[in-house]
Write a structure and sequence with these properties.
The chain contains 12 helices and 7 strands. It is mostly helical. It folds into 3 domains: 75 residues, Ribosomal Protein S8, Chain: A, domain 1, CATH 3.30.1370; 118 residues, Orthogonal Bundle (Hypothetical protein af1432); 75 residues, Alpha-Beta Plaits (2-Layer Sandwich). The strands form 3 sheets. The chain has a 3-stranded mixed sheet with strand order 5-6-7, covered by helices on one side. Strands 1-2 form a two-stranded antiparallel ribbon. Strands 3-4 form a two-stranded antiparallel ribbon. A hairpin with an 8-residue loop joins strand 1 and strand 2. Helix 2 runs parallel beside helix 4 and helix 9 packs across helix 10.
Amino acid sequence: MKGRIIGREGRNIRALEAATGVEIVVDDTPDAILISAFDPVRREVARLSLHQLVIDGRIHPARIEEVVAKVSRQLEEEILETGKRTCIDLGIHGLNLELVRMIGRMKYRSSYGQNLLQHSREVANICAIMASELGLNPKVAKRAGLLHDIGKVSEEEPELPHALLGAKLAEQYKERPEIVNCIGAHHEEMEMTSIYAPLVLVGDAISGARPGARREVIESYIKRLKGMEDLAASYPGVTKSYAIQAGRELRVIVGADEVSDDQAARLSTDIAQRIQDEMTYPGQVKITVIRETRSVAIAK
């Protein structure tokens, strides 16, 4: 089957790469073909096209172009359908069709391993809850929360930061000024003029920083945990230190004979301050200093 996908002198694979704009790697790995491209929508078109060609069995350049064109149309329809379904689920109405399509495209994007559509839905719901608590309009907050990352899925002007590009697009598609400001200000790259803007900023931070939301490169993750443990261990009287809960809590065990209760209380504050000043981490880190006295006697 791999031979048929490659074709005589590689003509099939060249036709597939030209039609989809991806790079296809057929190596010695059994039962696997790698599709490489920076654009996730292109990758999905290539994956679905290959899948159909393998099932169908007829693989030649003309057939490849036909299948790719058909799959591209189907995917565009699916993207629009996903956008419409998301808006209906969240009760958001009156969006420009192009913005609805962008919401659908979010399904195929990810940010630090977190799916962009799931993240935007989460931010929309968090913003609506906060707006209700504060006596503001939850529908406006929800709309701003859903649209805050549309700059990441735009196909134009990538040299602008995604927040400013998103604001520009929202303005172009006739969104209200407060929505435009929420999108542009959610990374503080634009001055906040709307009462809803801080809600989107906070909602975005909550969704991105919750445990398990985003994937970190394993080396940098381990280095961060090790750095926390080493920082705590550098204080006199500390016998052991453990970073637990994916680095969201630091347990510091001190010797009872070297550190008093007052010093233990001060130590937790000092370590927290140093971590805050010297390290970068998502969310917050809780420092627990444990000082225990053990009396051991042996009966013989």
